[in-house]
Batch of 2 targets.
Target 1
Amino acid sequence: MSEAGTQVGIARLRAGGVAPLRSVDEAAVRAALADVPDPELPMLSVVDLGIVHRVRVASGDGPIHVEILPTFVGCPALDFIKASIADRLAAFGRPVEVVATFEVPWTSDRITPQGRRALEAAGIASPGEPQTAASLIALEPRVPCPHCGSRDTVLENLFGPTQCRTIRFCRACRQPFEAIKQV
Amino acid sequence: MTAVAPPIQDVPAVVLDELLRSMADDEFVIGFSDSEWTGIAPLLEEDVAMSSLAQDELGHAQALYALLADVIGIDPDPLAYDRETVDYRHCRLLDHGRGDWAMTIARRYLYDTADAVRLDALASGRWSPLAELVAKLQREERYHRMHATVWFERLARGGADPRARLIAALGELADDAATVFSPLSGESGLVDAGILEAPMAELETRWRAAIAPVFGALDLSMPPAARDPQRGRLDHGEAFRWLHGEFTMVRRSEPGATW
């Protein structure tokens, strides 16, 4: 917990070489966050991943306050993401606070259309429509293969290399692929 | 750093402490038990699955310990790692050691189905820091429950040896199967405050109704009532003392170490 402050401090030091941005408002902060990649899915920005929740810019020289929604409760990349956000926003020359909140749950349908295209281009199937049914059948929609587009794919493993991914197999092109869990 | 939990009126910290500690310790202990399969699970897919499950559960424990730490005003790490074995409040269902694959699946199935009932009873609670976290946990636990259910049915219908092992595991766990619902001394306060929807005894009834069709379809005997519900989160035995030694090893050898 105490390291968050240190990270902000480090971020400010690193910002020395970056040209300071002039105006600071919420839109400017959100635009800057579009430069911050997710460490586990670096083809996506934190904005495309849909984890940026509330952004507040205090008046005067007050702090920039950013709330983010963890994709998974135990996401091990969370501290790294907070530091990356603080690092990027340090260019505004203001104190930066980044906190995680569960005020609204992150769900896979928060990934933007642009984010979904970036995932597909990297060979990771994006989550389909939001689901509510609690059965394995509900997890067996015909997720299209990101390599060949076939819908003849099967679930290999509910769990995958990171908390947010499952593993599937395409029977058409005989390739395994990862898919973002629908949560 | 997460947002600080707002206090709740008219519920003593000791009552919240008891609830959060029981939930956090449950997730912490089952997470470490699951991690005992990393590298040696019977299938590569299950090695990945159990490792990911363990990571989820330890993350849930971390979030629950953080909330508890806010309530009682201490750091979460000592809460997780510096207690003696007698001070942990996980349920005895999780005290049987890793065992074989059938034991692991039996424990996971019983725990995941019970935890789901408990989370349902907390999700619309009036204390928003917990209700919000629970809403998030439910989305992840759904995957755990599906995994456990598929394997539970696969072992029960998988021929003589898997079925015999599953029945033996359920037999060993029987007296502790319902201990997720061991009564909390302050639970009436939680119910009155609108944090917990119903007393644990009522939640156990709901759990039994939920799993009875599965046990019936698989021709398995339903778990009996807990032998001593008042001690369902006490008297941790040798298997937990061993696990505790494992998960506190780094902390003991390098006090204050951080990543």
Target 2
Amino acid sequence: MKALAAFAVALLAAGPALAAGGPIDGAVQRQPVNVMAILMFLLFVAGTLGITYWASKRTRSASDFYTAGGGITGFQNGLAIAGDYMSAAAFLGVSGMVYAKGYDGMFYTMGWLVGWPIILFLIAERLRNLGKYTFADVASYRLAQTPIRTLAATGSLAVVCFYLIAQMVGAGKLIQLLFGLEYGYAVVLVGVLMILYVTFGGMLATTWVQIIKAVLLLGGCTILVVLAMAEFGFNPEVLMQKAVAAHASGVAILKPSAAITDPISAISLSLALMCGPAGLPHILMRFFTVPDAKEARKSVFYATGFIGYFFLLTVTIGFLAIVIVGTNPEYLDKAGKILGGGNMAAIHLSKAVGGDVFLGFISAVAFATILAVVSGLTLAGASAVSHDLYARVFARGRASEVQEIRVSRIATASLGVIAITLGLAFENQNIAFMVGLAFGLAASVNFPVLFLSIFWQGLTTRGALIGGFAGLISAVAFVVLGPTVWVSVFKYPTALFPYEHPALFSMSIAFFTTWLFSITDRSPRAEAEARAYRYQYIRSETGLGAAGAVSH
Amino acid sequence: MSEEMYDRVLANPKFAELTSSRNRFSWTLSIIVLLAYYAFVLTVAFKPELLQSPLAGGMTLSIGLAVGLVLTIFCFAMTGLYVRRANSRYDTLNRLLIEEAAQ
């Protein structure tokens, strides 16, 4: 049981991207009930439910529900994107990874960051100009609606489901650690709150929950770093000298470990870290909440700044914890391992430098972070069901807006119930691979289809469909046959596919098959699709005819 | 949006000017960022001990940590550079183009 719980913690350690070998030291123990943390969290819940009530009065049309009426400013959206991206996994996982292994944590943060400038230069404004509510709008712009929407919705739902299960199980474990609440209560609580936010408040409430959480998280981490750095006279050189002296690995914490220095692993991991975000449906959806391409660009600019700053803080927190937490017997067990598991480095640090009140605050922020991320995911999943599958595929565009909104609310509630059920079912399973799978799918299904539909005139429905499903199947197969499932879950001695991070291979398969089955497609439909690229190109470059903001 | 309007945009030399200049700019920036990032990834893969070496003699602060800080600032600066030019020069050109096509 303890070992399985530790695996769940490893999932959080893996960060939003991949289930890398995170710091899995020490099993999860339920902590004593933390009253201060619960009070602060209740305050957050009360505030966000108030916002949901306010947002529900303004959420009437489909555009309100999916994109907050397109009325979010670039700055607000930048904070919300950063909020979607800065999960509890990134906060606790990266600082925990630095605490355990040193420099490896920084390698992950660089990959997650560098995707953003690329998204800005190549994707953001074209996505805004072509799409309305979901990225499937863009992918199916000139291709056949039914198959491409089905593919995009399948890709989105697969990413959302795996990510959601991982977050739910992670939330249950984390809340057990932070608040001393039972696992089951925690999962149901997260599920119910997320259903309330999304069903009643739609994108407007989800965005504001995300913005508040981003401000709390950035503020909390800043205070944590300032309080802790004061003990080193704000001198990073002093900090690093003491960290090297305190850590069991000594000076090796300044060097990437063997886990990432294998060239194929490093390159494959870097690809997934970089391209994954450009295929995550809840992130892509954020670009439709701003009025135009100009605000879309600004949102990435702000988001990059916030995300970069946040990652610098989390890496610093890891090194600070090596000295302050790692040398204090109060936070270590008899074997010298950190109490509560590897993800607790930042949490213990907050207690060490700020006492119980600050510990409560940071714990509440971590919980709020999970809640905000699952809400964004659920909204993206519900949109794939109602806007893509229901309105475009089943009703063939003949569904009324009222019907579509009703379906989206039903889909939200259903996804919430599914997430709670699976969250409870997977309590004692090793689900560390699910985060990796979600990112692998995003990079190997959604990203190639989106990228090629924007940039390649020769893309045809047949190519996108075959390539997309080839990416889907290969990403799942490589993860199942790889070390994270074949060895860690099925307990076979050796993996059939040797690499933990398959993105290099599954992305290559997706791009190659899409290309091959597009250039060999000689159907009249393929010709019409190539001709239609001209108009798509004009719209993606200029925004002519793009869906504008709806005024309230 | 009528097809004639799209055809007028396509025929306008400003469209070619806008797209070729902006695309050259955005692809150049992408390649610069990718080169910087993959220089880092390949260092991790092939010469990890380089990242461990001190910034200056007698220091513990390493080149790797400085690279992380510099890459972060660099990414943010590059997005700023792109947004500044796109939101002023390119958007002005874009607006003119759409106004002319609407006539």
